Amino acid sequence: MTRMVWDDDLANCDAQAYANRCIWAHGTVDLTGCPYDFSTPQYRGQNLWARTAFSAQKPTNLATNVVDSLHAENQYYNYASNTCNDGKVCGHYTQLVWANSYRLGCGIAYCTTGSPFAQSQNWWNVVCHYFPGGNYQGQKPYKSGQGCSQCPSGSGGCSNDGKLCISSYECTMNPSACGGYGHIAPRTMWGKLVCIAYAVLGIPLTLLFLTNIGDVMADIFRYIYAKVCCCGCIRKKNKDKVQEIRTPSPTKGWKLDETGKPLPPSREPTIIDNDDDDDDEEEEKITVPLTVTMLVIIGWLLGGSVLYTVWYKDWKWYSSFYFCFITMSTIGFGDYYPSVDNGLGTVEDIMIMVSAWTYTIVGMAFLAMGFNLMQDEIVDKFKWIGEKLGFYKKEEEEGEEAEE
């Protein structure tokens, strides 16, 4: 079943024009000049709904009342026999849930003539048009089974709840509903070849970026950890001084005795210190414990799960945490992905999407930083295990002997 989306042009140019006629009967209108493909003779489904009007002021919750009233006919529909119960109407419901209908537009008009109510000539005329139309004779409105199991070729994949297919029309009008989590895939030969070429170039560049940014962030984190959590634990060691032993030349610089003969100089060697700065010291590399690194990464995932739970009310906290983990690990199954209902039409929508993109990019950088921080300690742990199991032998340091 394809998810239904609102279409302003279908509503304003088609349904509204018919509602303005104030006729309580099914029919069509002249669609000349309408945008998209509605100027061509294509079948559109139609539902009519009416209520008495006490004034020309539009009632509140009218749209909700219309949908609830049409959907209430489901109690009269028998899916097994594809028929309505005796003496009951259910065609409005079947058109409402028709699997292939994915565009909806409604019009409303305040009418003073043509009322279907004998007790009142003033009434509200609501007309809803569906494209493509449904209610074909002998066909069921939808197929029973698992949601999204038979989405049509070229569709935009599956909705967040895993129940409805996303039409290519919705992807065109709202690209954020179909973005980047595996539910969109190339189908043509050229599309697949371009995807391969892009991945061959893009994956190494992404890994290079994450490696470099991870190194920088790891150094910053080590510095902060040393200053905040490990104050005074930085050990310093003096650089090995480079010493050079020089022996005087056999004749150069000899002193003379009272007779003018050269005196042998002292054979004590002269020690020259080539170290320009005796206080030059270097810091040993600080190792951040695995637990601290893991807490930082888990904290980032938990923070993201809180944000997505606030943004998307139908997401449970564990679903949001699952989405954050799948995104940070670059798995991207496509069962959950960030989207907005209004197609980035409001400031709030834009802020949500920008925040989601920022969270993902910074999160991947945090993950790269975590790998950088953990790699040294993980290597040491494996070496220690190897020593205990006899698989690894620690290299012995060879002492240096000085010869006189």
UniProtKB/TrEMBL annotation:
Chief subcellular location: membrane
User: Which membrane topology term applies here?
Assistant: Multi-pass membrane protein
Cited Pfam families: CAP, Ion_trans_2
- A cellular component term, taken from the record's GO annotations: plasma membrane
Which Gene3D superfamilies does the UniProt entry name for this protein? 1.10.287.70, CAP (3.40.33.10)
Give the subcellular location.
Membrane
Q: Does the keyword Ribosomal protein apply?
A: no
Please state which protein family the record places this protein in: Belongs to the two pore domain potassium channel (TC 1.A.1.8) family.
Q: Return the protein name.
A: Uncharacterized protein LOC106180958
Record lineage: Eukaryota, Metazoa, Spiralia, Lophotrochozoa, Brachiopoda
Gene name, please? LOC106180958
